[in-house]
Amino acid sequence: MTAPRRRRGGTLAALALLLAASGALRSGDIVGAALARAGEDAVAPPEPLACPAPPEALAAALSAREARLSTRESALAERMAALALAETAVASRLAELAAAEAALSATLARADGAAAADLDRLTAVYSAMKSKEAAALFAAMAPDFAAGFLGRMQPEAAAGILAGMEPQAAYAVSAILAGRNALAPTE
Fold this sequence. Notes:
Number of strands: 0
Number of helices: 6
Oligomer: single chain
């Protein structure tokens, strides 16, 4: 007769079940203790731990540092106030300079316009004169000055005046007229 075979899987399963139950009981015990402690904490909070007093040298060093920082902070605040004041003064001066520049530009424009109007009027007077009389007047002028007026005149009037001048004076004025734009850029 043969002996009946035993099943081994049942023993292992039972052993695993017992180990799992033991672990659950232990974790339940830990959870229960934690919950009990949490309830105690909610009822009466623990006393805070008292900090030991700092050593005297550390307290003195911290006080000295705080005093230096306070002094530095007040100096910085004064400097910032001075910078703000200076910035305001600079902005005010810039506004004054801009207004003065605008006034100066307007004055220069009026002066330039008046000078141009005077030159135009004087050129018209010289153009209206008889060529012989204008030639005598232009001969007495400096060549640069005479060339400026002749350059503004109509070619016919300028030709009559140049024809009435002495040849050397007429040549000097003509040379100035011909060379006054020689140095101007072409491009």
